[in-house]
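Appendix B, example 12.
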Amino acid sequence: MKQIEVPCARPGTHFTLQMESFMISMIRQMPASTMATMMHNPAPKFWRVMRMYADRLKAGLDLSAVRREGIDEKCWSGYDGLITVFVDMDMNRIIYATEGKDGDSVKRFKDFLREHGGSHQNIADFSTDFGAAYIADVRKYFPGSKITVDRFHLEKMANQALNDTKCGDLKLDVNRMKIRLSREDLPGQRGPRNCLQTEGVPVPGL
């Protein structure tokens, strides 16, 4: 059997360029395993295509203009499946993602930044959450950057404080009501519970 190259597909691939374009658009909407089941192909084939295009994008990536960076973690597979994502805040795009949620992820991003024309000295602002590992290593590897706590976590803390205050006031009101009801239920007094117990019973003189 003699194989020839065709203009509609890459050499050595099982898919046409149009199919690969469709796969790239679909991988944003569903897991590779789901797409593989729909298309009756093993998932590793799809991952090879994704890695090939990802390597092409990384090879031509220029990060020399990155000035403001955002960092956050994302859970992708259960409790232990955490990744750290770095976002260019000016261009609103993800430029780096790595496994784990620890200080080493910040160091790996610094190395990645240097490999693609960027510099840790160019990063003026870092937006992060209250994670101690993130904040400590941003100060260590990006000493000239200002750290800003993102708005989501500030709003979350404010809402939590408000809820705690409301719950505390509600518990206080409930305790006061219990004390008042217990006093009204003393023997010889007609409190709410006594009224319920004597409901429907004729009262002399009425």
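The longest strand covers residues 68-77. Confidence is low (pLDDT under 50) at residues 190-206.
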